[in-house]
Amino acid sequence: MSSGAITKIQATIVVVIIIVASGAVYYLLTPEEKPYVTVTTWGENFLDAMQKGVGAPFEQQYGVEVRYQIQASSGEMATKLIAEKGHPSADVFLASEGQMFRATGAGIMAPLSEELVPNLKDIPSAAKPTVNGTSYYVGVYGDASGWALRTDLIPPNLAYNGSWRWFLNPELKGRLAVHDPTWANQMAWAAVVYGGDDHNYDPAFEFFKDLAPNLKFVFATDAEATSALGSGEVWGVYEYGTVIYGMAQKGIKVEMVYPEDMPTVQGIRSPITFDIDVIGVVKGSKEDLAYKFVNYIIGPEAQYAYCAALGNSPVNPKTKPMPADVAAYLLTGSELQRAWSMDLRYYAGIQDQLTERWQTEIAPLIGHAP
């Protein structure tokens, strides 16, 4: 090959070598193609918030294009990335904490550190879990779950009174809906109501047996819940605040409520289930760009733009206050002191048993008076 041929190749291909713990990773880029990082996300409002609040300003600041892989669920994406181990199609994984823990256990996530992700130092410990003492992912926002009520449809004589006992009122027969037992937060909340906790779910089944006559149906997706609540088919569902905020943006009168007379659990009075979705760097990806992206999304500016659009709680305390219309769907003030993060890892280990038990003990009772 002549030196001229080599020069021509050098003029058309840029080879960037990045040294990482596992060795050298090579990226081939044409002169017309700028560097890019691929991020997983859910679609619709999640994608819109990510593109406008994070992706566009990140690209402007760093000259790095952000591409997106849409996931129907983070569980499906985790399965995909695990199968792609060593040759991932995504660089940054956004997921529920349970699915991220699974991905970490499969060895596909790269460790985080304050050297690689400087903004990590500002994040509270509750939002940066560790696995065997090492940080592999960090919270990107927090989300409370509770009861969402169509207060405009509930008759004055049945107005919500702040108590969990209100949901057992026989006059609410067929007016409520709950998620299936794959949603750990809902099961933990029900366990606490009847004196249990996130390691004792027997009381949850007793609660749902009493609640069953008031349940119109059990939903498997947020879309089913919001459709029934939005149409007025039901007056209340147990849901995430961010999902209900999306309904409110469409002009539907709906309010999040958190019963104030629940038993204390793990030192928390009348706990409100609260968890985080997390983000991390996929091992063997464009790790240098992925670390930049993770650092950016947990910074105060991106946190404000992203969380305000989603109706979620920022994890970075340096973030300026959320707009008033968003704050109504977040935990603030004294409610924040009631935030309770249940043991998701324990639940993952018993979920199949609880689901089977639900089908036997609870499903046949739905919508039927005892």
Radius of gyration, in angstroms, nearest whole number: 23 Å
What sequence of helices (H) and strands (E) makes up the elements? HEEEHEHEHEEEHHEHEHEEHHHEH
**CATH T-level topology of the largest domain:** D-Maltodextrin-Binding Protein, domain 2
What distance lies between the first and last C-alpha atoms, to the nearest angstrom?
Answer: 85 Å
How many extended strands? 13
Q: List low-confidence stretches.
A: 1-28
Cα shape = globular
Content-based structural category: alpha/beta
Tell me the helix content: 25-40%
| Structure annotation, total helices | 12
Strand content: 15-25%
Question: In CATH, what is the homologous superfamily of the largest domain?
Answer: Periplasmic binding protein-like II
Number of domains: 2
* CATH class placement of the largest domain: Alpha Beta
Mean pLDDT: 89
Q: Supply the CATH architecture of the largest domain.
A: 3-Layer(aba) Sandwich
Biggest sheet statistics: 9 strands, mixed
How would you portray this structure in words?
- By secondary structure, the protein is an alpha/beta fold.
- It has helices at residues 3-12, 45-62, 74-83, 97-105, 184-193, 202-211, 222-231, 241-249, 287-297, 300-310, 324-327, 344-361, and strands at 14-20, 23-29, 36-41, 65-70, 92-96, 109-110, 138-149, 176-179, 215-219, 236-240, 255-257, 272-282, 339-340.
- The protein contains twelve helices and 13 strands.
- The strands form three sheets. Strands 5, 6, 7, 8, 9, 10, 11, 12 and 13 form a nine-stranded mixed sheet that branches. It has a two-stranded antiparallel ribbon with strand order 1-2.
- The longest helix has 18 residues, at 45-62.
- The radius of gyration is 23 Å and the shape is globular.
